[in-house]
Amino acid sequence: MEILSVTVTPELKSRLEALAADTGKSLDQCLTLAVEEFVETWETHLADVHQIDEGEARAVLKAVND
Predict the structure, then answer these.
(1) Integer Cα distance of 35 and 4 in angstroms
(2) What are phi and psi of 37, to 5 degrees?
(3) Strands, E, within the chain: which ranges?
């Protein structure tokens, strides 16, 4: 494991502590989960953007009106 230092506002720290208490998780677990979700979301988003930029085939959804 690597150790990172993060600076947050007192309000954000308080909110995080409340969520940790409500979920029964430690601050470290909550922060790790948040970073994992951020990385996964942005990796997927950027991969999609790159596919669009490169003109690769992709699924297109269409809304149908009644």
Answers:
(1) 11
(2) -65, -40
(3) none
- pLDDT tens-digit profile of 35-60? 999 999 999 999 888 887 776 666 77
Structure tokens at 42: 């942005």
Question: What span, in angstroms and rounded, lies between the C-alpha atoms of 32 and 43?
Answer: 16
Task: Name residue, tokens 């502590």.
Answer: 17
* CA-wise closest residue to 59 among 32, 51, 11: 51
Q: What are the structure tokens assigned to 13, written together?
A: 């720290």
31/52 Cα distance (integer angstroms): 32
Asked if 37 and 45 touch (Cβ cutoff 8 Å), the reply is no
Token pair belonging to 64: 């149908």
Against a cut of 0.70, is the pTM above it?
no
